[in-house]
Amino acid sequence: MKHTSRRILSGLLLIGLALLLVLQGLYSIFSGNIWVLIWMGLFVIFGLSRWFDRDWLSGLVFFYIAFLIGNQSYHWVHLSLSILILVGWLFFIGLAMIFPSSRRHWYKKRYDDTFIESTDDHHLSTSFGSSSHYINDPDFHYAKAEIGFGKLNVYFDNAIIQGDSAEVNVEVGFGKLVLYIPKNWIVKSNIETGFGGVDLPQTAPITEDSKTLYLKGEVGFGALSVVYL
Length: 229
Description:
With 229 residues, the protein is α/β, with parallel strands linked by helices. It has helices at 2-27, 34-52, 56-74, 81-98, and strands at 106-111, 114-119, 123-126, 130-134, 142-147, 151-155, 165-172, 176-181, 185-193, 197-199, 211-219, 223-228. Residues 10-105 form the LiaF transmembrane domain. Pfam families: LiaF-TM. Keywords: Membrane, Transmembrane, Transmembrane helix.
């Protein structure tokens, strides 16, 4: 329901922006630069989309970018663009340090027609910079990876799927996520992409020890790559 509501709202706002372009072309209803308003509207939509996922920090970043675009034309704050960018960079790094992501992500696993809820032990995130994580789990079933503006490499070469499948849920903003997985894992992707890209390897041959890795989540302006080890 949450994803459906978000898509409906984003779709309506995009349609509204399209109509605004038509009205501006026909009647010149705005004296200023219509493209400034369009770009501001797009980043507001992106920010609202992140807030629908309770990703407050990324949403604020998008709203701040919308403010920077508008301030260049309307001069709400009389500071140079470089100063405003530096202020925003310091502010958001400070927020990321004070309020690290504390969301709890749940998965449901079916046992004898009964759903059991459990929290994951592999919640990986990076906001700025680059980092690498190694998952050494003899009973791997779930991981969550969140990337803001950085790069995250995740290695699963020592992870073992005891059942038939496991899941990795991703949230990629402007950054890049690279997953390094064993050759016997078959990748099934259900990733929603905005302006980002997903690079998946050629499907590995199915063997007796093959396992299925389900990819879910979103890639906004960033990139997701899966590499076989």
